[in-house]
Amino acid sequence: MAGYIFSLDSLDSLDLYTRSGVYGTKLSVPSHSWMAHHEGTFADYATMRPGDNIYFFIQRKIYGIGKLIRAGTDCKFFNFPGAGIPERSLYTNLSEQLLWDEGDVSANQRCICVFEPDPHFFKLGIDMDDVLSSNPDAFRMLRVFWKLSFIKFDDEENQAFRDIILKRNQDALSTSTEDKGVFEFQPSHAQITRHLSLEYAFDSGMSAVLSSCADGDRLRHEMAIEAGLVHQLSVEDTDTCQIFGKWDYLSHQVVASPFKPVDYMDKMDFFGYVYVPEFKPTRSQFLVGEIKKDAATLEDVDQLLKYVDWVKDEYCYGDYSMIRAFLVAYEFDGDAVEHKQRVSMRRYTVGVRPAQSLEWRDVKLVRYAFNAASNRLEFRVIG
What we know:
ph1033 like fold, Trna Endonuclease, Chain: A, domain 1, 2 domains, 8-stranded mixed beta sheet, 28% strand
């Protein structure tokens, strides 16, 4: 299962969220349109699935462990009708419509998620340095947790989080007294479930997010395309999955370079993997993608292939056959199409006795277009 870590500003907030089993990111007030950081938050929520673990980060310490659960039909929702529209909202006008009411700030808590302890939210926080040193090779995304409200990480990194937190809290796990060193849990899920309707559904909110960013049949921000694409893949939209496939894990803005100052790190626009059926967590294929909101050039093809080579070394250990790569753009210039044909082939060797020399060419150029009638992205393979 995947994991999420949310950044909080106080222990009071930690107590509130762990007791209630509800969390909502506080977004800045939009001015006329959503910005990239807003759309990135929507993209992160879009890939949340029941069973994913959650943790909280406060003043260098990490607290956990929770698990996303269904409240009604899903584990995440838009907090009020019209929350996906980039307009300033007043709490006084919304208080009766909010799924999660935290006071005035809830007008900017556009999305929420619901969860329960798994097995507990422990009061003992683990220092970030202790977490990183507990299993250095497993932590990729935690090392780039910078200027973000929260991040997502894969099942390997999630297990490393669980390992250190459970090991440090063994006494709390074995104690049978009332004061076990865990936070009290008094969930607010029933209140949320009573108010649910289609107006709160994540699909409805994402339609508003995309339409607000549309300029004809193109979108103005690449992050909005990311959000729309990972959302449609997460809900297994038929037309989208016919092109990109179905994936057990999906994320965006995933590290794809050696560690260095965060602002200079390369990140894949979208990334995923699928397990060998019935044999989770063994992974069989990886999804690698780059997005351009306008025209893609030959340099963009090269950038995608750089990500492919990274994933081959970092996740596939030399086996290119495990990778499916996509460059998504509104249009492609002729040089990009021809360049892809020339440079996308990779030769590699698998096996020892006997060794096999193979070729890999699984790179697709995909044109996107926004459909204003359905408020969804449509995709077409052109090469």
